[in-house]
Sequence to fold (473 residues):
Amino acid sequence: MRNIELKVDDDSFWNDKEQIIKYIQLEDFENANTLIQSKIKFENNMIDKNGDKSELVCNQHFIFRAYWHLFEHFIKCWTHLRSSPDDSWNHLQDCLLAIDVLDLSVNGNDFFDSNMLYNYLLKIESLFPYTMFNSVEYVTKKATCSICGNNPFSKECNHIKGDLYYGKRCYVTIDEANIIGMSLVENPANKKCIIFVEYDKKNVKYSPFGLVWQLSFLKPLFDFTIIYKNVSMTRDKYLKYLRNIEKNPKLPPKRIFQVEYKKITQLNKIGFKIQNT
Amino acid sequence: MLNFLYNEDSKLETEIYKVKNHLFFMSLKIAEENINFETYSEVLSAEAKEKIKKNEPCIFITPNRGWRANKNWLYPKETADFVKYVNQETQQNATYLSDPEEILSLNNIDSYLPIITLGIDFILKVGIESVVDIVIEYLKNKYPRIFSNSKNQIHFKIQIEKRDKKSMLKLEYDGPANDIKNTFTGEKISEIIDRL
Ligand SMILES: [Zn+2]
Fold:
């Protein structure tokens, strides 16, 4: 079921949403998490309660639950930035996957401010050093639909992958496949298939995760700007810079970045707005 | 030389953008292919055979052969969802030309739609525009963000039976989602119909 109309009957949704964002912005992750977990529990109950009665209600609560999961992963992403940015990357990808679910709703973009969140997360993503990813090519011989258990290509299965059915998202399990090849690609199907970057966890600042490390000193869920600087150098200076990279291959090789604090966000009924101060 | 790399970086990027943009305009290739429904006779499903015989206006979902060293007939992984979408959400009917046995998954985020084969009667009754619209609507529905992101490329082929039923005209699109509509203009479609 696509294009799901979302409806909120009581104010607790809006109040809790505001409260969670506020907690995160104040870096009170413990309280934020407690509230998030209680919301996830609530949505799970609602899905179970309506399991065989109303498909629409189940799907609505599935989408709401994805929204709370988004903040859950965001907290994990943010708290790992400084100490283990590679873990942080996985949680960032989970945030983006949660937005995929929010996109299923009719008013998705306005309802959750998911466009704003999406662009914010992409900006964080761009600070990571991952530019090439692993990717496999394979031929599937046998697959199963998660909803009906049939072959998704058979007449018996009419479920579309990624759609919601009674509060469950349809996915396909591959039971039998032949791998044809492995490639390195810029735009992979799954961005969690990274090429591992070795770095000194005690010295993240001077690792390829230096920009991510810088980001961890900003306030979460506040907008920021990335200034790309094209630095012009004399030939000698540039050669010196290259020699430096040779000595310390962990330096970012091509460009010099600078992250600048800017703008403050303000909570409102719908979500958070970006305002200049 | 090295200075050029640094100072002219942004200029270079603009040039690359221009070249890419130029390629986008060339994202549709039209060519005549020496194939017809007979070509698929060895793999034709019973249902497809019946529909071809009765001249039913139908979107035939067609397998591809010869991916890398693979000699088998393969469907891209997007196929099942596309077929269900056409049959559930549109007025048209999509039928597998051969029973799907092997599914190919490629290694990037691009969307590879199955080859669409259309009989000449379908074109005369329904038109190419409707098929292109179905493709666009399907993508909008499934990947709402794809239209604002030119990194994700769309790949699809439409094969149209020529009036003499001896060969087919192959339209091959490789480009961003938001360019499909601009590529299949009224003028382009009349040009295609003239060539049938
Ligand atoms: Zn199914």
Q: What stands out?
A: The radius of gyration of chain B is 19 Å. The interface with chain A takes residues 2-3, 6-7, 9-10, 68, 70, 72, 74-75, 77, 79-81, 84-85, 88, 96, 100-110, 141-142, 144-145, 151-152 of chain B (CB under 8 Å). Residues 2-194 of chain B form one domain.
